[in-house]
Design a protein that fits this description.
single chain, Enolase-like, domain 1, TIM Barrel, 5-stranded parallel sheet, 16 helices, binds 6-deoxy-L-galactonic acid, binds magnesium ion, Enolase-like_N, L-fuconate dehydratase activity, EC 4.2.1.68
Length: 439
């Protein structure tokens, strides 16, 4: 686009905002552990020396603590200012390590928690900037890259015992020849989604019923419901949901880390009569072997184990895959350190033959996964079998280029960038200053 070259495009400033939406008022997003989430984000705006060309990126939070991430991003600011886009892309792993392994800052990470959430917002903003520079939506920019270019973007540190750069290259090359067909298919049909909109724990029976009906009329064949607060109550709600959606549609449940390992097994045995496709986050996201134990015990019941939204980095995913702990891999576009690390998890999942069903919802996550699942299908997995991306219908109206669904499918984004630019009006209205939303 620009008369400026990539090497001359300099990031001149990084602003970060604490944005909070009061979703807890209506129990939107509520689950067994997060009973009152206010969907929020730390929102990064990068300004450049090219008038009007900015990068926007976010990381998703639940309200309190967003100010801590803002602080962490402020501590990383000096690592970003003055860099050219060309310099970053020439050696992206080096730039990632600058953010994640800054010798003092890494002590409060490394590659996990607040610092990694902040890293995601920055890295996502850089990808947004790059895709706008190329005048392409991010998914298309990635799809048009050669396998050799993609692998150079990834930091294989600590995962080479599971996937080498050479193996990643072979995976990508294996699908290169047929990419065009899948790209056309995605533009025509979109990527299949499932909905969690009906399943929040704080909803009344009436609301659950009507949202199930709505989901069916939109064409959804996969529905996810929250569990874990109380067994009797869960059985009652699952009866209600099954009576609405019928015996054939896929039903998934999500415990958001509520249980012990054995408790997960015992609890799910009680729910197995509802023909559950997966149990999501039964226990701690760090418990790789615990998930493996649960997966082995639930296999005869045909219940798969899914996790990922709170898995902090590629190393945890590596171990989950190596230990056969999961049947569905659910990386989060903001908990991992941005686009690059997500792509690495896609490639590892492909090698271990575990389908990726990305976590979404929150604020901005659907906008992000929309790009990423397209890339996964077109360039990495080449299959839609057992693959559905989460969709939740909240807060899209605040984005300049919101996700567009066609029935129950994600459509390919058209606007250049990575779709996380918030409307100016929304940024002003929901900015959280001095412990109160600004008005
Ligand atoms: C607090 C959030 O809404 C979670 O409940 C949500 O991410 C959930 O686990 C999901 O899978 O969508
Ligand atoms: Mg979940």
């Amino acid at each position: 686009m620009q008369s400026l070259s990539k090497d001359k495009l300099i990031i001149q400033s990084l602003d970060v905002f604490d944005i909070r939406f009061p979703t807890s008022k209506e129990f939107i997003g509520s689950d067994a552990m997060h009973t009152n989430p206010d969907y929020s984000c730390a929102y990064v705006v990068l300004k450049t020396n090219c008038q009007g060309l900015e990068g926007h990126g976010l990381t998703f939070t639940l309200g309190k603590g967003t100010e801590v991430i803002v602080s962490s991003i402020e501590a990383q600011r000096e690592l970003v200012i003055g860099k050219s886009l060309g310099e970053i892309f020439k050696d992206f792993p080096k730039f990632l390590r600058l953010l994640t392994s800054e010798p003092q800052l890494r002590w409060i990470g490394p590659e996990k928690g607040v610092v990694h959430l902040g890293t995601a917002a920055i890295v996502n903003a850089i990808w947004d900037l790059a895709a706008k520079f190329e005048e392409k939506p991010l998914w298309k920019m990635l799809v048009d890259m050669k396998p050799e270019e993609i692998v150079e973007l990834l930091d294989f540190r600590y995962v080479t015992d599971a996937l080498t750069k050479q193996e990643a290259l072979e995976i990508l090359k294996g699908l290169e020849g047929t990419k065009k067909i899948r790209e056309e298919e995605m533009v025509r049909d979109g990527y299949p989604a499932y909905t969690t909109s009906a399943g929040w724990l704080g909803y009344s029976d009436e609301k659950v019923r009507s949202l199930c009906k709505e989901a069916i009329s939109q064409g959804y064949n996969h529905i996810k419901i929250k569990v874990g607060q109380d067994l009797k109550e869960d059985i009652r709600r699952l009866e209600l949901v099954r009576s609405e959606i019928g015996p054939e549609r896929k039903l998934m449940v999500d415990a958001n880390q509520k249980w012990e390992v054995q408790e997960s097994i015992d609890y799910m045995k009680q729910l197995s009569k509802f023909n559950i496709w997966w149990i999501e986050e039964p226990t701690s996201p760090d418990d790789i072997l615990g998930h493996a134990t649960i997966a082995t015990a639930l296999k005869p019941l045909n219940i798969g184990v899914a996790t990922g939204e709170q898995c902090q980095n590629r190393i945890i995913f590596k171990q989950l895959l190596q230990a056969k702990s999961i049947s569905f891999c659910q990386p989060d576009s903001c908990r991992l350190g941005g686009v690059n690390e997500v792509l690495l998890v896609f490639l590892m999942s492909k090698k271990f033959q575990v389908p990726v069903c990305m976590h979404a919802g929150g604020v901005g996550l659907c906008e992000y996964v929309n790009h990423l699942c397209m890339f996964d299908y077109i360039c990495v997995s080449g299959s839609l079998e057992n693959r559905v991306t989460e969709f939740v219908d909240h807060l899209h109206e605040h984005f300049v280029n919101p996700v567009i669904m066609k029935g129950s499918r994600y459509t390919t984004p058209k606007a250049p960038g990575y779709s996380a630019e918030l409307k100016k009006q929304s940024t002003q209205q929901f900015q959280f200053i001095n412990s109160t939303p600004s008005k």
